[in-house]
Amino acid sequence: MTDYLSQELQQIREQGLFRTLRRIDASSDTETVLEGKKVLLFSSNNYLGLANDSRMKEKAIEAIKQFGTGSGGSRLTTGNLSLHEQLERDIASFKGKEASLVFSSGFLANVGIISTLMKQGDVILSDSLNHASIIDGCRLSKADTVIYNHVDMNDLEKKLQSVTSYQRKLIVTDGVFSMDGNIAPLPAIVSLAQKYGAMVMVDDAHSTGILGKTGAGTAEYFGLTNQIDLLMGTLSKSIGAEGGYVAASHSLIQYLRNKARSFIFQTALSPSVVAASIEGIRIIREERERSVRLLENAEFLRNGLKKSGFSLVDGSTPILAVLIGSAQDAVHFSKRLEEEGIFAPAIRPPTVPEGMSRIRLTIMATHRQEQLEYALHTFVKIGKEMNLLSTKNVMQSK
Ligand SMILES: *Cc1c(COP(=O)(O)O)cnc(C)c1O
């Protein structure tokens, strides 16, 4: 009966795309243990180091002592703890919106928000490099979806002109794109949305805690908080815990609370992760120096790699996409990095286009200068071995 599965798995293997899990034996810190071996971690979303912060752990432990390990029910039945309500107030205030709603993950938030708000007769305009959870939200919605070319505002405008007969329109975009690390052109998106009467939703998974004066993300970074209808994000990246959320107007939040199936039919997040999230947001708002340090660290490595002749996708975030070329070369590069004690995965098609395989680095605020220097030195060493360094880039960046 399941022969077709092994056949397909065999095909995946032959294409060099078979996926396996790597086992981590310690916390997600700058130094961790990969299958028994100490490595420097350059691929964690724990950007600010909060997932292993002692204050976060204390709050999680206190919450377990007071409320137990599980919430025991969905939010609309018996699982709605005072902690959930406090977290939602804190998120709304952090994001500068009237209200917020917490889901069990960012994935479930995107799926729930998009599929609930957009109905038959509506249209969703979605950037071609949006996160998989946005894509699945669009697929689950009964609305039509139109994909516009990545950050291409001429294309977005053309597509908006072709959908004027639809009832409601929603433009949805990642704030910072997870594979390239570039920032979405929100000022242009907002002005097109106003011109053509569309709502705007931004997924700030990779900018919350990092960009903007208070760390609220790309909307704050561009001063557009009031112009963006839905600010979605995750509690699992810089906030260092788990869960997803959306911040918006009272009426939007009330609507989602009543209608979003991935909110209604899910057990409420457990007390420990909610308490940790509350503490993570507090720390982010009070210790702005963490994100300053993070961006400085990223800038140091980005500049160093460019000057050494690597080509990187342009950006100014802690996601560094170091272009290698073929999938085989990227995989070999990543394997060599691991032999030298650095864990950073190769990203291959179909996640990225053919010939654009890359090493995707994520920088942390807690990376020490000598760790960054070691990474740079190791990249250059492997780049030379593999003959990947372009002298053209070296000249240009001088
Ligand atoms: C990680 C991520 C998500 C999903 O968030 P989880 O909390 O991990 O489910 C959604 N959107 C983007 C852009 C992400 O990077």
From TrEMBL:
Catalytic activity: 6-carboxyhexanoyl-[ACP] + L-alanine + H(+) = (8S)-8-amino-7-oxononanoate + holo-[ACP] + CO2
SUPFAM superfamilies reported for this sequence: PLP-dependent transferases
EC primary class: transferase
Positions where N6-(pyridoxal phosphate)lysine occurs in the chain: 237
GO biological process: biotin biosynthetic process
Key words of the record: Acyltransferase, Biotin biosynthesis, Pyridoxal phosphate, Transferase
Cofactor(s) needed: pyridoxal 5'-phosphate
UniProt-listed Enzyme Commission number(s): 2.3.1.47
Gene3D superfamilies: Aspartate Aminotransferase, domain 1, Type I PLP-dependent aspartate aminotransferase-like (Major domain)
Residue span(s) of domain Aminotransferase class I/classII large: 38-378
GO molecular function: 8-amino-7-oxononanoate synthase activity; pyridoxal phosphate binding
Pfam families in the cross-refs: Aminotran_1_2 (PF00155)
Listed pathway(s): Cofactor biosynthesis; biotin biosynthesis
Chain's role: Catalyzes the decarboxylative condensation of pimeloyl-[acyl-carrier protein] and L-alanine to produce 8-amino-7-oxononanoate (AON), [acyl-carrier protein], and carbon dioxide.
Quaternary state and interactors: Homodimer.
Family: Belongs to the class-II pyridoxal-phosphate-dependent aminotransferase family. BioF subfamily.
Name of the protein: 8-amino-7-ketopelargonate synthase
Species of the source: Peribacillus asahii
